[in-house]
């Protein structure tokens, strides 16, 4: 099934953040916040344009991403993803990770094997805060790629700055008295910066489902920000037509922002964590050669997560006597375990 972009299909809204930094203009800020919340309620995905991350910084982030994946395997393997799912850092080679919506039940080896019969043809490199010692970064040695660690460390915190804007806007748009309500649960150290490279693969392998890029899933973050190159292939489930997907067409420099499961629970389902996947690029010129090899695609998601011990308990403005809290409180660590353990 390919992405459908017919006239009646879901549109991913665009929210312009240009007035956000003018803290004097409260009306414009409120309007932006309300637009953002509306998009998160109806679609769960939104393009944010005119945010505070400058174009040259984003271009450089993609430059480093290309460079790191271009290294010989032997160099990439100087920072391998540690075995198992507990530490989610470093380089994951093609086939290591399998994205899935399957929840762990405890005895998972058979399920994991079955899921891997269709491998994800991608490699990734995961980075966190150096302060977060339970998730130790696995840095490629500086002599192999001088400047990579310094750039990515700075980029991680630049992303968090925009992330704070988004969390503040969401709190305002949700009518929370305390604008910092959501930010306070995030120190910033629990986030994850992920560099992704989708390798060239014959289109037919994806069409016949012998291989996948990134199967349909929801994120288990509170909020995800995604930067994508111009290849295309990201698809978002149409909320009014479950099972059908629309393309999240690349917009240069825009952040594709989406609600993760934790924010959906937190908001008592008022904000949607929408399923998404990466499949074939929609444009014909993204393929090469007789096998219609897909062009290599790069993307950079930034997952924001509350600190591991933070308790995700219904946001006060999202419940009422008529609409009591639907979910039991859960810690970030508890939810993460349920979801992450099937991936590695
Ligand atoms: O590469 C993309 O465009 C999406 C990746 C994604 O959904 C994820 O890593 O959770
Ligand atoms: Fe995702």
UniProtKB/TrEMBL annotation:
One matching Pfam family, short form? DIOX_N
One Gene Ontology term of the molecular function aspect: metal ion binding
Q: What PROSITE patterns does the record tag this protein with? A: FE2OG_OXY
Which of UniProt's keywords are assigned here?
Iron, Metal-binding, Oxidoreductase
Q: The organism sits in which domain of life?
A: Eukaryota
Indicate the segments forming the Fe2OG dioxygenase domain, all copies.
189-306
Family that this chain belongs to: Belongs to the iron/ascorbate-dependent oxidoreductase family.
**What is the official name of this protein in its record?**
Fe2OG dioxygenase domain-containing protein
